[in-house]
Specification:
- This protein is mainly alpha-helical.
- The protein contains 19 helices and seven strands.
- The chain has a single domain, classed as MFS general substrate transporter like domains (Growth Hormone, Chain: A), CATH 1.20.1250.20.
- The strands form three sheets. It has a three-stranded antiparallel beta sheet. A two-stranded antiparallel ribbon has the order 3-4.
- A hairpin with a 2-residue loop joins strand 1 and strand 2.
- Helix 3 packs parallel to helix 6, helix 4 packs across helix 6 and helix 13 runs antiparallel to helix 17.
């Protein structure tokens, strides 16, 4: 059924309780919706996530088909890593422009644009026979992927109540990561059964269909939501600088950087060749381990979301703990003189899977420390971190593998050591920006102002009353003071 509002037709589910109203809080607005005409948030969310899901499929398709791509184009490991390097570089560089376009034109239009770019890129790759054409196809995939992700994240913040946004964000990324399952098994099976062109043509068609579905079902906000006034270009540039100067944005940036890149490097390109060539695992078993990575993320994601929502003051500790766990597990695997036992490879995959949901904590920190009008830009900045690190590690690993003789056990053992300096850089960044973020939060009084002498005259019970009250964020969203710190 449909609801006519503000000249638009919105999908909705009629409620059995007439006349009751609910307050819907989003990151940038607070609206009142009636149970009699409740917007179908899950329809809007599902259509947006469908574009994102197929975006992840296209993003990770070369990770599953890496060996086939090397044979098709006659390239070595270093050149193969160039495919993913170019795609992820475009994805990372496109985060801020994509966020600015989503904030300006709305997620509905940009989901359509992103889905069509993804379909065009994979369609071009399906029939590419030369390296330059194939690289151009991956550029289109990276651009479409960036737009789809930013659009989906903004819709979550607008449509879901604030207290549910951390879990809803985790579920969104989890469902999106199921696209990796589609590339690890169905796409790989179709590739071997029907050939390269057929497999990538089918993948391209899936993204085009999802873009059309999103254009038909997605709306930029719930009933009563009004878009912010578009800012001029000069103002947008100034806002980007302001977003970066907020310590919470930088804390989310370093947290995302340290938790995501190892999982992304493994899943995007080097995981399956490492399991097959260095660990001696059968290709189908390796594919099953890659699928386990996604399944483990599905299981862990909601748990991380609940922890984030219930313990906002401990979000940085979640990030640091996951970085330590990931680095420790890799140390054990790489220290073994020969192939790791199967159970240890399973442990490695599960630990890597935790990195995906943990990196989403960075988005939550950015969400609670930035105005709603800058939300897409802030989350885009955070998202740049993990993918930029992934690009660097992917390329350096490719160079190391080429220099050490290709896909060998010793070559991979040396190549994976590239991760350790990145982890160290992320940990230092988290510790430094966390201190600044907590200082800024501590200076804010219950009205969002700067604390001063008036706070020293409070009665002993005042801190409890102050913490019980909700502070108004610059976004206009009501959140508890503890949610602003990490």
């Amino acid at each position: 059924m449909w609801l006519e509002t503000d000249g638009n037709r919105l999908p909705y589910w009629p409620s059995t309780t007439e006349g009751a109203t609910h307050r819907m809080r989003t990151s940038g607005a607070e609206t009142t919706t009636s149970n009699g005409h409740r917007p179908a948030v899950w329809v809007v969310w599902g259509a947006a996530v469908l574009v994102y899901l197929f975006g992840v499929t296209q993003r990770t398709s070369l990770g599953a088909a890496g060996l086939d791509a090397a044979d098709r184009f006659g390239i070595d490991p270093g050149t193969l890593s160039l495919f993913v390097f170019l795609q992820i570089s475009v994805y990372a560089a496109g985060q801020i422009p994509a966020g600015m376009m989503v904030d300006r034109y709305g997620p509905r239009v940009m989901l359509l644009v992103g889905g069509l770019l993804l379909g065009l890129g994979q369609g071009l790759l399906a029939f590419a026979t030369t390296l330059p054409l194939a690289l151009g196809a991956r550029v289109l995939v990276g651009a479409g992927d960036a737009v789809a992700f930013s659009s989906a994240m903004v819709l979550v913040a607008r449509w879901f109540p604030a207290r549910r946004v951390p879990v809803a964000t985790q579920v969104t990324t989890i469902v999106g990561q199921l696209g990796q399952v589609l590339s690890a098994l169905p796409l790989l099976l179709l590739l071997h059964a029907a050939g390269w062109s057929t497999a990538f043509t089918v993948a391209a068609g899936a993204s085009v269909v999802s873009a059309v579905v999103a254009a038909a079902l997605v709306r930029n906000g719930p009933v009563g939501w009004h878009p912010p006034r578009p800012a001029p270009a000069r103002e947008l540039v100034r806002q980007v600088g302001e977003v970066w100067r907020r310590p919470g944005t930088r804390l989310g940036f370093f947290g995302h950087l340290g938790t995501q890149f190892s999982m992304m490097t493994f899943s995007l390109l080097w995981g399956l060749p490492y399991l097959v060539s260095a660990q001696g695992v059968e290709p189908l078993v390796a594919g099953a381990l890659m699928t386990l990575l996604v399944i483990a993320s599905v299981v862990v994601g909601p748990l991380v979301g609940v922890l984030t929502a219930r313990h906002p003051m401990r979000r940085s500790w979640i990030l640091l703990g996951v970085i330590g766990l990931t680095a420790g597990t890799w140390t054990v695997v790489l220290a073994l003189p020969g192939p790791a036992p199967t159970w240890l490879l399973v442990v490695l995959v599960v630990v890597l899977a935790v990195g995906g949901p943990a990196s989403v904590v960075g988005f939550d920190i950015a969400r609670t420390t930035n105005p709603g009008g800058n939300l897409a830009v802030a989350q885009g900045m955070v998202n740049i971190a993990g993918y930029s690190a992934s690009v660097v590690v992917l390329m350096v690993m490719g160079a190391v593998l080429t220099a050490t003789g290709g896909f060998t056990a010793e070559g991979f053992r040396t190549a994976w050591l590239v991760q350790y300096p990145v982890w160290a850089f992320a940990v230092v960044g988290i510790l430094v920006t966390r201190r600044k973020a907590r200082r800024v939060a501590g200076e804010a009084g219950p009205d969002g102002g700067t604390s001063g002498p008036a706070r020293r005259r409070e009665s002993p019970s005042a801190p409890r009353r102050r913490d019980a009250r909700r502070a108004v964020e610059p976004a206009g969203r009501l959140v508890g003071r503890s949610e602003r710190t990490a």
